[in-house]
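Hey L., structure's done. Input below.
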Amino acid sequence: MKPDQLLRIIEVLNPDNEAGRLTLITRMGASKIDAELPPHLKAVKSEGKRVLWCCDPMHGNGETLANGVKTRRFVNIRGELDRAFDIHAAHGTRLGGVHLELTGENVTECLGGARDLNETDLARAYKSTVDPRLNYEQSLELAMLIVRKRGAVSSVSSAG
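Output:
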């Protein structure tokens, strides 16, 4: 979606610019977020639109392997989320939420992470019938990233 299209949709869905009414969920993928997110942030901010920004680093980073198995690469999920925080900070906007698909189970559905899961590991504990989920270790890694990034944002906000 182009920034001008986004602005038109925001106007239709929230004509009174009511805070808390709209949540914009970005799911751009690690390879596109640097090019795609800034123009949207600039457009929404310049028009004074009040929205809640949320990053979904899961759906833009899905892939199907040659054997037909759906997976996601942890490095891409982490990369998109990390960049989302940085891009928002650089544009004076706030990332207000994150959407993750995860489980507390020891599944092997997403590649990479602390145990560096590879394609052969997927067969060991791939349980999802829909979309691949982060396992408990990968989830904790992202939680720690969020804590670090939010801490950095809070430090900048309180210092300014």
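The longest strand covers residues 23-26. The chain has four helices and five strands.

-- N.
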